[in-house]
């Protein structure tokens, strides 16, 4: 192995002399451009023109591969086929395909527990949860006793405890139905469950008795056999049972927009009482908040494109339900952003807003019934109520979610320095009571509450090294107690064997950038060990510490490997301030930050130059392509831009055009064009700079970032480097869309095998 490397280094130096490329990068031993020349791709004389401030006028840029934007053109089809066979001829040299595939499959092999809820107030307390088993694509819901759960806890939930209650696979004849929400009635005898058919925008609520399981069936009518006759169609989210468990409030699409209505069990749906007439704008959806004492109903409407909302409340006692009731308006005009509703306590509605609070705060509003007016159309109401701060804005820490629990408290989730930190606050005083699970370095993905008054609830996490980790949270006299219910582990691994260290790099402008390094505690690592460096850095998102089968299988399979999550500016790691610091005209800061992290890893002797794999998806794919070019030559042994925007000047008007422009800049504005041109991946390729080994991964049906991004970028890179010393390749996932819709296990395994084989052939095992 050593001899080979030495040999190839000499060869590379020789090659440098001949072609006069001023770089000292080792020749890749598996790669041989002579044996596998790049496919020829014609160049046409198309151009694009943009106004530049620097040039004081328009600049015209060549766009020689514009023809690749036509997916149905036979020339494009041939280009893609040729690239695929080039990639396969390289990947074929990977000697560990079988082991890699097995390790990726193993990483998909776990019980995905969810929805875990403890109904402590029931006459006979019980647990309710769901599980999707390995190789299953549909959930099964279970009901278990506390004793059964405790036994399961001692074996880390190797088998789902309790009795099967409801199987999604029995809810439709074509196995295309899934349950997206469930609501247990307050007397614990009934459950409402919302079923959505794959790909549909709306679903239906069905109701069944909790003592009427559906675990086998002769027929598969919608909603399954043995349910009650009540069906509410055209629904999208909310349902709230009334205190007597004989009726519920719900939201629904109608011909003229969304409505709020009331259904009495056992009565025909067409007799349901509409209490809120359609919002005039069909883009606005109604949502509900209902006080646990059954007195108040708050309805608020928000567009699905932003969080600007209107909100109204009604007192349910002393009024007959109809579309002509007394209401008060809380926010009558759409001038306030309302995020998660927190709950209703002492006649106050608590909600999260960003009004004068860049990182959001919890406010409350006294529901003043003296202002109530009888109306048939809520938009006739004009008064606005005053909000009072309860939990004020905390700079550089974004309030992600707040939710009422134990009657007068709230779970509040912040993002602090790249990680989620959970607190309990007193809702009446706004005082912080306690931090929960302060040492947890993972990403919470859900919390499950039975009711706002419950003393027990659960928190579900995913982490780099465990797909599911669930804690029970218990409010006691002396404060919160937490108990681990399960941390699902992948065969051959133990989540406790991994350390997650938080570190900081200093970016070009002196800013400290957080990152996390995950490594096996007992496996020796040294500077020859490799590191997978992942980042995103856009839209204020947090992209840290989550579970991904592809990442974990790679981390698990080799000695000394490390996985790094980068907290780049542009993301939300340090509040909305951090987002703004890396968006639009500040976009270059995102790239500086990643360069700094890569250099920090090398400086700390955690990894050698050339042993880092730089990877990111979507906006992170763009980032990785830019950083591959901007970091000192030789920093990266591999670069994997995934579903990446690589030709920004051409595709900024794509499917999410306006959002992109806000995030990355508008090339129609001269100053912004100049900044974009300085980083736009395809326009910064150069014949004088050999790109690192590059594998572009994309999805054939991606309409968010169209495949032509990768085609054009690759064609240009290959044209610039006809004798490339490194592989410059692409891999296409078929029948796949942008990230989340690239969902089947088979597609993911194939993608992972290509990525990890590429790494074996570039960075090494
Ligand atoms: C300059 O570029 C813009 C944007 O592409 C275009 O609309 C405009 O027509 C161009 N102007 C000239 C004089 O070419
Ligand atoms: C794409 O190519 C096909 C086949 O050559 C052609 O029929 C079609 O007009 C082209 N589409 C565009 C938008 O140029
Ligand atoms: C499955 O069947 C339902 C009717 O039971 C139908 O509405 C739906 O379109 C089908 N879905 C798929 C993905 O075939
Ligand atoms: C929808 O609005 C139209 C026009 O205002 C009206 O004629 C129709 O009855 C409404 N439909 C419903 C279901 O309210
Ligand atoms: C309610 O009032 C608004 C504004 O006056 C109007 O646009 C809308 O059509 C009304 N809705 C109904 C259901 O009457
Ligand atoms: C809201 O506060 C403003 C200023 O403090 C005050 O003028 C106004 O009367 C208050 N409105 C209500 C409805 O309490
Ligand atoms: C360094 O670690 C690699 C595995 O990451 C191992 O193969 C190699 O033997 C180690 N080298 C030394 C000098 O310990």
UniProtKB/TrEMBL annotation:
Residues 557-745 form the Peptidase S9 prolyl oligopeptidase catalytic domain. The keyword GTP-binding does not apply. Residues 1-26 form the signal peptide. Pfam families: Peptidase_S9 (PF00326), Peptidase_S9_N (PF02897). It catalyses: Hydrolysis of Pro-|-Xaa >> Ala-|-Xaa in oligopeptides. Residues 58-476 form the Peptidase S9A N-terminal domain. It comes from the Eukaryota. Keywords: Hydrolase, Protease, Serine protease, Signal. Gene3D superfamilies: alpha/beta hydrolase, Prolyl oligopeptidase, N-terminal domain. GO terms for cellular component: cytosol. Its EC number is 3.4.21.-. GO terms for biological process: proteolysis. The keyword Protease applies. GO terms for molecular function: oligopeptidase activity; serine-type endopeptidase activity. Belongs to the peptidase S9A family. Monomer. This is Prolyl endopeptidase. It comes from Meira miltonrushii.
């Amino acid at each position: 192995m050593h001899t080979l490397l030495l040999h190839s280094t000499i060869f590379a130096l020789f090659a440098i002399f001949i072609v006069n490329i001023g770089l000292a990068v080792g020749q890749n031993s598996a790669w041989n451009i002579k044996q596998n020349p790049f496919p020829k791709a014609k160049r046409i004389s198309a151009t694009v023109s943009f106004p530049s401030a620097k040039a004081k006028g328009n600049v015209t840029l060549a766009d020689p591969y514009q023809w690749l934007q036509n997916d149905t053109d036979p020339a494009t089809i041939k280009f893609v086929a040729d690239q695929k066979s080039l990639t396969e001829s390289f990947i074929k040299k990977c000697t560990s395909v079988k082991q890699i595939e097995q390790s990726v499959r193993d990483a998909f092999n776990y019980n995905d527990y969810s929805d875990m809820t403890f109904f402590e107030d029931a006459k006979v307390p019980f647990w309710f949860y769901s599980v999707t088993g390995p190789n299953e694509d549909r959930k099964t819901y279970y009901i278990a006793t506390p004793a059964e759960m405790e036994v399961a806890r001692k074996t880390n939930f190797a088998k789902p405890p309790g009795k099967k209650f409801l199987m999604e696979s029995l809810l439709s004849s074509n196995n295309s139905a899934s349950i997206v929400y469930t609501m247990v009635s307050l007397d614990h005898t009934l459950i409402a469950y919302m079923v959505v058919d794959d790909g549909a925008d709306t679903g239906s609520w069905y109701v069944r008795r909790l003592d009427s399981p559906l675990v086998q069936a002769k027929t598969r009518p919608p909603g399954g056999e043995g349910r009650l006759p009540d069906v509410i169609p055209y629904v999208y989210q909310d349902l709230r049972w009334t205190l007597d468990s004989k009726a519920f409030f719900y939201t629904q699409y109608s011909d003229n927009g969304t409505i709020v209505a009331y259904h009495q069990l056992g009565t025909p749906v067409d007799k349901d009482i509409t209490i809120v007439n359609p919002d005039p704008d069909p883009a606005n959806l109604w949502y509900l908040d209902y006080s646990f004492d059954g007195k108040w109903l708050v309805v608020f409407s928000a567009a699905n494109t932003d969080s600007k909302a209107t909100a109204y409340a009604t007192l349910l006692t002393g009024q007959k339900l109809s579309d002509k009731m007394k209401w008060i308006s809380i926010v009558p005009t759409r001038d306030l952003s309302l995020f998660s509703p927190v709950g209703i306590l002492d006649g106050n509605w608590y909600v999260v807003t960003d009004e004068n609070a860049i990182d959001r705060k919890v406010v409350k509003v006294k529901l003043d019934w003296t202002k109530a007016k009888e109306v048939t159309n809520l938009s006739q109401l004009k008064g606005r109520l005053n909000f009072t701060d309860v939990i004020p804005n905390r700079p550089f820490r974004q309030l992600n979610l707040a939710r009422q629990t134990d009657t007068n408290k709230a779970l509040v989730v912040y993002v602090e320095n790249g990680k989620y930190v959970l607190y309990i606050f007193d809702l009446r005083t706004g005082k912080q009571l306690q931090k929960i699970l302060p040492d947890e370095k993972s990403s919470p993905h859900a919390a499950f509450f039975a009711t706002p008054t419950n003393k027990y609830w659960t928190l579900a996490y995913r982490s780099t090294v465990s797909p599911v980790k669930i804690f029970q949270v218990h409010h006691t006299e002396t404060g919160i107690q937490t108990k681990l219910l399960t941390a699902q582990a992948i065969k051959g691994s133990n989540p406790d064997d991994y350390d997650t260290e938080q570190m900081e790099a200093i970016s070009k402008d002196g800013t400290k950038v957080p990152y996390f390094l995950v490594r096996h505690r007992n496996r020796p690592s040294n500077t020859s060990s490799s590191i997978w460096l992942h980042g995103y850095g856009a839209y204020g998102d947090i992209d840290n510490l989550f579970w991904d089968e592809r990442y974990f299988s790679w981390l698990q399979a080799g000695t000394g490997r490390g996985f790094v999550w980068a907290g780049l500016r542009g993301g939300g790691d340090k509040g909305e301030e951090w987002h703004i610091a890396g968006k639009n005209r500040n976009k270059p800061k995102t790239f500086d930050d990643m360069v700094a992290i890569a250099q920090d890893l090398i400086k700390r002797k955690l990894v050698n130059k050339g042993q880092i794999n730089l990877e990111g998806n979507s906006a992170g794919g763009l980032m990785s392509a830019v950083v591959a070019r901007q970091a000192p030559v030789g920093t990266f042994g591999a670069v994997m831009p995934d579903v990446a925007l690589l030709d920004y000047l051409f595709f900024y008007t794509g499917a999410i055009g306006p959002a992109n422009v806000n995030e990355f800049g508008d090339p129609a504005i001269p100053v912004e064009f100049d900044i974009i041109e300085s980083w736009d991946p395809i326009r910064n390729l150069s014949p004088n700079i050999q790109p690192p080994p590059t594998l572009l991964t994309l999805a054939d049906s991606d309409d968010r970032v169209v495949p032509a991004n990768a085609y054009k970028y690759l064609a240009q890179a290959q044209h610039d480097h006809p004798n490339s010393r490194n592989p410059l390749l692409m891999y296409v996932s078929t029948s796949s869309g942008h990230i989340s819709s690239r969902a089947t296990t088979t597609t993911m395994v194939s993608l992972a095998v290509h990525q990890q084989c590429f790494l074996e052939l570039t960075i090494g095992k």
